[in-house]
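Entry 12.
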Amino acid sequence: MDDGRPIFQQIASTLEARIIDGSMPEETQVPSINELAAFHRINPATALKGVTLLVDAGVLYKRRGIGMFVAAGARDRLVSERREAFRDTYVRPLLEQAAALGLDSAQLAEMIRKEADA
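Predicted 3D structure (tokens):
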């Protein structure tokens, strides 16, 4: 874990990725703060901060005395957010550049199809 972002954000992203890929399904318990801290060799307060991001976003919820669990609808919410981010980061700039080059949507779709097939 060291992609330039704060560790707590990396912890949150790792948990999000596991929810999205299905390895941490909805309504299942997530690793405890102490387990996350020990696994990543970080301070438990840092692990807690990452988990708190997801609790605040409604992705995780706490069952008092039991632990943290993946909220119902969390995967759909995360996929939707990532799709919006993908659109904003990649698709909109792609369309702007295509327009600047005089490419219409059919030409652009053909270019994408060819790259996908390669």
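Annotation: The mean pLDDT is 95. Residues 74-100 form the longest helix (27 residues).
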